[in-house]
Amino acid sequence: MCRLAMKTASKPFSPFSVLQAMEAMQEGYDGSGLGLLLRGLEFTEYKYNAGDPILSGIAHSEAALARLNKIMTETGFELKYDHEFDVKRQMIEAKDRFKYILRVYKQSATWSSLSAEEVENKLMLTRLALRADGEAHGNDLTAFSLWPDVAMIKEVGWPLGVGEAMGLDSGRITSRICMAQGRQNTNYGINLYACHPFFIQGVATMTNGENTAFIPIKDWLSGRGFPGYIGYQSDSEVFAHILHYVTKQLKLPLSTYKHVITPLKNEELAVHPQGDFLRGLRDACRRLIIDGPNAVIGTLPDETSMLVMDAKKMRPATVGGKPGEWAIASEMCGVDAMIPDRDRSKDFQPMREHTVIIPPDRQELQIWSQFDQLPIHQAA
Amino acid sequence: MVSVRSIANTPSSLTPNDLPWIIEHREDRCTLCGKCAAVCPVGTLKLAYMRKRMPHLVLSATERGSSYKTFVGIRQSTEVSKRCIGCGTCAMVCPNEAIHPVPNNDRDRFRFVNSQQGEPAKRGGRRNVPGASLLDRIIFDRISMLTDPALDAGRHEFSCNTLLGRVLPPEEYVRRNLAGEWIPPVREIFPFVIGSMSFGALSPNMWLGLLQGVAYCNEVLGIPVVMATGEGGCPPWVLRSPFLKYIILQIASGYFGWDEIIRAIPEMQCDPAAIEIKYGQGAKPGDGGLLMWFKVSKLIARLRGVPEGVDLPSPPVHQTLYSIEESVMKMIQTMSMAWNFRVPVYPKISGSTSAKSVLNNLVRNPYAGALMIDGIDGGTGAAYNISMDATGHPIAANVRECYLDLCAQGKQNEIPIFAAGGVGKNGNVTQNGMALIMLGASGVHMGKFIMQSAAGCLGNESNRCNVCNIGLCPKGITSQNPKLYRRLDPDQVAQRVVETFMSIRTEMKKIMAPLGRSQSLPIGMSDALGIDDKDVAERLNIRYVC
Question: Which of B80, B111, B142 marks a domain boundary?
Answer without folding.
Answer: B111
